[in-house]
Fold:
Amino acid sequence: MHPTIEFDPELIARMSQRGPRYTSYPTADRFTPGFGAADLAAAARPGKPLSLYVHIPFCESLCYYCACNKIITHDRTKAVKYLGYLMREIDMQAALFAEDALVEQLHFGGGTPTYLDDAQMGDLLGHLRSRFAFAPDDTGEFSIEIDPRTVDGARIRTLRRQGFNRLSLGVQDFDEDVQRAVNRLQPEALTRDAISAARDAGFRSISIDLIYGLPLQNVATMSATLDKVIAASPDRISVYNYAHMPQLFKSQKLIRDEDLPDGATKLAMLGLCIGRLCAAGYVYIGMDHFAKPDDELARAQRDGTLHRNFQGYSTHAEVDMVACGVSAISAVNGTYAQNEKSLEPYYSRIDRGELPVTRGLVLSADDLLRRDVIQRLMCDFALDLPALSARWDVDAAAKLASELARLAELERDGLLTLTPDRIEVSAKGRLLIRNVCMVFDDYFGKPPAVPLQRMQYSRTV
Structure:
């Protein structure tokens, strides 16, 4: 097994529990409707570098496993209307920041961002560039998620000309029976053609998403999928654990419970993924993510500059995230602000001349400290307590004394080592990093701020 990660199935089976993924701290169930557009405006810092996220919610077909905020439709007029409102929101967001606030990152997610046609995408990108200053192509990271079933080589070349330089492809599994069971038939040739076209077009980075735990999956099907993924040689690979929660996501009710692999099979598939990808030269970044050693994520982790946000791991830590579109979440200057989750309320707020913020949070000093702790553990698998104390002008060891004491049990289980100055997560503790972070979560297990807003978390492994 790769020296930076050790797969211990007995330990994982014993310790896995439901808990947050910590794309934010505090987690989204702590957001309150008391936070509104005025609070976001007050938090804005003109001139600070930015990361932009744009949410395009539309998809042509339903993938049964999907837990994203999406709208399944073939009515293209819906996208026309949405774009009009989205551009109006962009105008309002841009007004909060100086014209010279440099956009270092841009990410289009969904839904399926390429639901927009070439002209619509060009208009939207042109509008963004007219409102924000963008970093040059050789230093900025401008990414988009694509569906290889609906995007051909010509479209990929157009996306590159339009300014995107990173591409993410949903694959999930190459096995046809598995694809049929989740209503996502995607021949291998389409994925290979998309990757080839992206390389020819000059995309700097190509990422593939996989999921383990889908219906009809087993170790043999996952092994065959890994053969094909490794042969395609993407720069980054994400391997997500499918969380089956049909009570929350109606589309998952279309998946038959009897087709789902049992817990032992899921663990075996995870172990296979780790072993095969690390043997192929990929570095385990953490929380489902693998990257080639020369990828920016791997370099940032080695340098101690890796960051985690609502899109996962990132190389740009000191930027505010401005998120546009239905359900999108901004993270600006110690605040979180989430837009309306449904189209009509989103449109109504914009028609009233308001930013479409429906809820959010102003982080306290304690929140900021604990967020820093969780960030460093998630990204570095270590925490330097004197450095933490210096950053926040506090005696971190004293303030977190009860949490550090609780780590003794995890230390006995071999997840970490603890000294007066440092927490160091072990190779076999890295897969259970969420368990370690939960010790420092002052909200976990407490009632949410707003009734009926409690999140149902996936298992930590």
Observations:
- The radius of gyration is 22 Å.
- The longest helix spans residues 77-94.
- The mean pLDDT is 93.
- The longest strand covers residues 102-110.
